[in-house]
Amino acid sequence: MNEAQIAFLLLYLAYIALILLFHTTTLMYPFRLLTTFLHEMSHAMACWLTCGSVRAIRVYDTEGGVTSYVGGCRVLIVPAGYVGAAIWGCVFVMMSGGRKTATGAACGLVAMLLASLCFAPNRTMVGLNVGYALVTSLFVYLEWYVFTPILNYVVLFYGAFVGIHAIFDTYQDTIRRTVLQSDAYACYEICPCCLPRCVGIQWAACNVVLQLLGIWIAMVQLSDECEDAGWWECIAGEGRWGGDWQQLGDKVSQGLEGWLHW
Known about the structure:
The chain is mainly alpha-helical.
């Protein structure tokens, strides 16, 4: 483990301690609203991916939200909220390890924040999205023209908070108690064989795995083997695994040929 990986882990653990200590306080209120926005945006993206139409995306000051849509595949849209927020947390953590990847994550977030304002937002969401778009854009500017590194730390905090809050939110709303209007209950109505708490447990487990995956990929990106490699080359390339995907494909083909011959 090199110095960059140690620094990443120590900073991540410090963020987790800070988040757990102040999670329910006013200090973290804006970040809880950001997670709510990503939850609702994930519903909207699942709707678009399944050929539906989104009518409105709204975030309320009570830390709740709603996405109004028509069409799409409800089986995929309903679970996309809690799991989708965890996916965004994973993406922010995994992309925080490099300057360009952190910039890409920040610019992607700004694009989502601004694009969602086209879908009948309420006043709280307008203030939230414009505020986060301005602040995140400011950090991008500071990273490239004033001081570096700074954006890596911001994106890592976004990822850590969103990931942890997605786990906490899933536990509170789907495992600890059953809320009739919750996404877990909606899944139960679609598939009665799986009780709302069982749905919540599956989502929570998935959310934990996603956060760990983000940490692992960030650690790989910061390894000595990936110092001069691109992001995808680092994750799936020859330098990391001692062999490329073509070699793996050749081994699989040889095994299949032997099985067919037998």
